[in-house]
Amino acid sequence: MIRRLFLFIFAALAASSVYLPGFTNAPLADDWAVIQRNLDLSLQDLPLLLTAPHGGWYRPVFDLFVGACARLFGFEAFGYHVVAFTLYLAVTLLVADIVSTLTQRTDIGALAAILFGVHGAHAEPVLWISASNELLAGLFVLLGLRSYLAFRASASSGVFYALTVASYALAIGAKETAIFLPVALAVYDLLDTGERTWRERLRRLTPVAPLLAIQGVFVAFRFWTGSPYPVNIDLLRIAINLAYYLAVGLFALPDNYGYLTSLPLWREQPAPPLVTMFAAASALGILGWLFRASHRTIPRRQTRIMLFAALWSVIALYPVFLTATGRTAFMATIGVAWLIAAGWGAIWQAADVRRAWCVAALILLIGTHAGVASYRAFWWRQAGDEMERAIAWLDDALANIPSGATACVTGLPDHLHHAYVFRNAFPTLNQVRFPDHVIHAFLDNAQTDARCTGAYIIQYSEARTSASVNPAPLLSAMEWRAEPRSRESVSLRAGPRSITRHAPQSRHVFASGNHPRRCEP
Predict the structure, then answer these.
(1) HSE toward the beta carbon, residue 380, CA cutoff 13 A
(2) CB 474 within 8 A of CB 407
(3) Cα–Cα distance between 479 and 74 in angstroms, integer?
(4) Whose CA is closest to 398, among 341, 441, 355?
(5) DSSP secondary structure letters along 52-101
(6) Which of 289, 472, 475, 493 could cysteine-pair with 454, CB 3.0–4.6 Å?
(7) Could you tell me if 100 and 48 are in contact, meaning their C-beta atoms sit under 8 angstroms apart?
(8) C-alpha span between 169 and 173 (Å, rounded)
(9) Smallest Cα–Cα separation from 343: which of 388, 385, 389, 309?
(10) CA 471 to CA 481: how far, in whole Å?
(11) What share of the chain is helix, strand, coil (3-state, %, to 5)?
């Protein structure tokens, strides 16, 4: 047991470390607002969090999680990244433990940990504070599934069933994408029934009924509280979103290439997605060929486990099929890791004379996902560095503007290859970091508007110089409380002025629109 655990930990650490280079100390995009609104939360706020949306979303578990981290780290992002990475390791260990329990094979569990840990679609949940709710929800979903498996296998099963219910409640409290769990449990029960009749199979679904009732109440409550985004059902859009999830989850498409705003990126750098998708498709094609050649010798139980893994990936998409982002593919990739690990394990046992092909396909697939993950971690690191440079530059630029005056800043990057930088950072960044001025930000060289009449105009240039700027200090939790800053500024209209500052070593930004946009964290 201890040896098995250490093997899983080693596999999880080795695979997940691909995201470590993406750590920075700068909050990005929505992070500023997410941290600020939860900075002073405590358990005394729990009744309000449980009965109403907070900050536009109903995610009480995530809000309390961010509030607890904010008390320790304030606006210094590195600590959040350490916590998020720890959560990611825990999720990866559960991925390994569950499939190992289902297959009774430790090697398949270790392989699932590697496949999940290096998956290229996990950059946002691991490296963006605002998306770490996927990690929380995933952790509680897998704890719920693990408890349910123990409930089915144990004679004294009441405690495990209670843990299943509690885990599900915590999961949907972290993020609504976890609502699919009861359906996945029902599918597991229907598949894990041996030769029983359909009436007996349906009778086995009785323990799932309370979870389905919780799901129904939660969905009704969420419809009643509303969503920050309009809900439009467009069949063509749904088909495109499902194709995106297939490409990102199974065929290693870098998630930043899957948006309409990615067209400039496709024109500039078409090679990365073509190479990664071809490599992943080749590896999966080899495994499919080997499986077809040996499927008659694969035990039926192993086939049912693979079917459950595939259905998990499909079921996990039904809460998110109206949108498409890399982070919302997180739950589905759990099933992808199980499916490939279980399938590879079955092929390895059956294909004695073709094991070299089996190993080659696995190395190619893992290497492809590791390459995508490293690529995405690089750009999230660049986004953090750009935020620190821009804050230092703004400190310098605002030093020449009278306190209380209005400044319009143009040219700040919305994102770097869809690693978000200033998207939705204002006005919270203004209130937290620059409270002595009124700042209106216009991203990606957008034109100013009437608010800038008589204001100071500051252009964030893309000049590349050898000069260096020390990163601006961010606010720790202690500093935020010890030196509260004014949240309101007086607008002083100076004569029209233009101040141009050059940003040291700024990176090229692919323009993605003319106005700041909402980005669902």
Answers:
(1) 33
(2) no
(3) 8
(4) 441
(5) S-BTTB--HHHHHHHHHHHHHHTT-HHHHHHHHHHHHHHHHHHHHHHHHH
(6) 493
(7) no
(8) 6
(9) 309
(10) 22
(11) 65, 5, 30
| pTM reported for the whole predicted model | 0.88
- Residues 376 and 233: their CA atoms lie apart, in Å, by 30
CB 346 within 8 A of CB 302: yes
CA dist 223 and 231 (Å) reads 10
For 277, the enclosing helix (H) or strand (E) is: helix 271-294
Number of helices followed by number of strands (H, E) in the chain: 20, 6
Per-residue pLDDT, averaged over 201-213, amounts to 88
Q: Which residues contact 340 (CB under 8 A, 6 or more apart)?
A: 112, 115, 284, 287, 365
Q: Which has the closest alpha carbon to 333: 73, 54, 141, 182?
A: 141
What is the β-pairing status of strands 456-461 and 438-443?
unpaired
Structure tokens at 334: 């759990």
pLDDT of residue 350: 76
Instruction: Report the C-alpha gap between 91 and 174 in whole angstroms.
Output: 14
Is the peptide bond preceding residue 427 cis, with omega within 30 degrees of 0? Answer: yes
Distance CA 249, CA 326 (A): 9
| pLDDT surpassing 70 at residue 501 | no
The CA distance from 397 to 160, in Å, is 59
User: How far apart are alpha carbons 257 and 263 in whole angstroms?
Assistant: 8
Q: What average pLDDT does range 186-190 have in this prediction?
A: 92
Q: Where do the H-state alpha helices sit in 319-398?
A: 330-350, 355-398
The CA R_g of the chain, rounded to the nearest whole Å, is: 25
| Alpha-carbon 423 to chain mean position | 16
Per-residue pLDDT tens over the stretch 253-308: 999 998 888 888 999 999 999 999 999 999 999 999 998 888 788 888 889 999 99
* Cα dihedral: 420, 423, 424, 426 (round 10): 110
List, for residues 143-181, the tens digit of each pLDDT value. Answer: 999 999 999 888 667 899 999 999 999 999 999 999 999
Q: Which of 91, 107, 199, 109 is nearest to 145 (CA)?
A: 91
Using CA atoms, how far apart are residues 229 and 519, in angstroms rounded to an integer?
A: 10
> How far does the chain reach from its first CA to its final CA, in angstroms?
38
Q: What is the pLDDT of residue 195?
A: 55
Other CB atoms within 10 Å distance of the CB of residue 7: 17
Strands (DSSP E) contained in 101-217 are: none
* Count of C-beta atoms within a 10 Å radius of residue 282: 15
